[in-house]
Amino acid sequence: MTTLNPSRGRGEPVEPPSITAALADRLRSPLAPYYLLATSTAILVAIGLVMVLSASSIGSYYDSGSSYTVFLNQVVFAGAGVVLCLIGSRLPIGVWKKLGLIGIVAAVGLQALVFTPLGIDWQGNRNWVRLGPFQLQPSEFGKIALVVFGAVVLARKRKVIHRIGHVIVPFVFPFALILIGLVLLGHDLGTALILVAITGGMMFTAGVQARWFIGAGALAGVGVAYLATSSANRMERIAAWIGDSCTNPHVQGCFQKVHAEYALADGGWWGLGLGESREKWGLLPEPHNDFILAIIGEELGLPGTLAVLLLFVVIGYACYRIVAGSPDTFVRIAAAGVMVWLLAQAMLNIGSVIGALPIIGVPLPLVSSGGSALVSALLGMGLLLALARSLPGARESLAAKPSVLRRTLAVLPTPRVGRR
């Protein structure tokens, strides 16, 4: 359909804008990051709930007599996480800043509890705390606490960011180092790597000189190499990763690596169909947790896995828009911290599943089963939504849009008053 352009004369047709031009115009809107984050988060959580139900049904029935036990627990945590996400998205930036110091102190204190009688060991890691009927993984909430506290400190020191002493104290030392050290004492190298990545990404965004990252990167590399070589478990996983084939299924990491590849291979281009996974029948360990992407590939094929990857790309793009478009230093650094957290964790998880990296043992954000990981990730998304609302023009655009209630009432017939 064409339209008429009065400036060109009567009856002269004008072509409507193309789909590409309309999409580009939408993406230029100050509200684009907000809606991209909200939509991608909702879709990832929905995919996660569906796939947790599918991947956990067999193991859940074997353990509890019900195929829905793990799924219903995940629904409860998703509900709590969504509530926190909505609350966090409405908090003013000033309130988030005030929560920085409180959050990091609480995170360090909770992480220290894992070495008390409340702590729980699981598969060689001591990174959980039992609080009444619940089990909590403090390091997951340490990520969001580190982001907010680090953004507050680095934003306040933006004029002296070239002095490394101001960068280190008090962000890196004592809080970040203590938190990372406590996680490492619990033998959770994967989470420690995420915390290191968050710290480095926020410092880079704050403007710390590149030469400091060279030395810090070398020290971190030496530390990771030492931690890897000093653990027989980790060395077996690395050997299984770099080896041409896994002939011994009892080697750590070999069994999971092979069966994850089997799942992806069985899925082929279009997948076996939702609920039709074979590997979840006791073959692939942790199918609903660290290796849920393998079940997605097996049941939903390449379109399913690419959809998950695309959604994380969308989150990364929205975070970049916040970093590039905000005049507030705190907003830029905090958005970069959450972006590094989610994308680095997603890369480690996906790399482990497809065999590009050794099995590290981190969940896929917003998708994998796990209450603490899901709630903390949704809280992080709430922070991102609050940051997106603070972009120039975004709050005014949101205020100008009619609410759902007003739009609903607008289409209802107006009652006539005064007639009988």
TrEMBL record:
Transmembrane region(s): 34-62, 68-87, 99-120, 140-155, 167-185, 191-207, 212-229, 300-323, 335-360, 366-388
Pfam families documented for this protein: FTSW_RODA_SPOVE
InterPro entries in the record: Cell_cycle_FtsW-rel_CS, FtsW, FtsW/RodA
Keywords: Cell cycle, Cell division, Cell membrane, Cell shape, Cell wall biogenesis/degradation, Glycosyltransferase, Membrane, Peptidoglycan synthesis, Transferase, Transmembrane, Transmembrane helix
Keyword Calcium: no
Highest rank taxon of the organism: Bacteria
GO MF annotation list: lipid-linked peptidoglycan transporter activity; peptidoglycan glycosyltransferase activity
Broad class of where this protein is predominantly found: membrane
GO cellular component, one term: plasma membrane
Documented EC number(s): 2.4.99.28
Membrane topology (UniProt): Multi-pass membrane protein
Swiss-Prot/TrEMBL catalytic activity: [GlcNAc-(1->4)-Mur2Ac(oyl-L-Ala-gamma-D-Glu-L-Lys-D-Ala-D-Ala)](n)-di-trans,octa-cis-undecaprenyl diphosphate + beta-D-GlcNAc-(1->4)-Mur2Ac(oyl-L-Ala-gamma-D-Glu-L-Lys-D-Ala-D-Ala)-di-trans,octa-cis-undecaprenyl diphosphate = [GlcNAc-(1->4)-Mur2Ac(oyl-L-Ala-gamma-D-Glu-L-Lys-D-Ala-D-Ala)](n+1)-di-trans,octa-cis-undecaprenyl diphosphate + di-trans,octa-cis-undecaprenyl diphosphate + H(+)
NCBIfam families: ftsW
Known role: Peptidoglycan polymerase that is essential for cell division.
Similarity comment: family membership: Belongs to the SEDS family. FtsW subfamily.
Protein name stated in the entry: Probable peptidoglycan glycosyltransferase FtsW
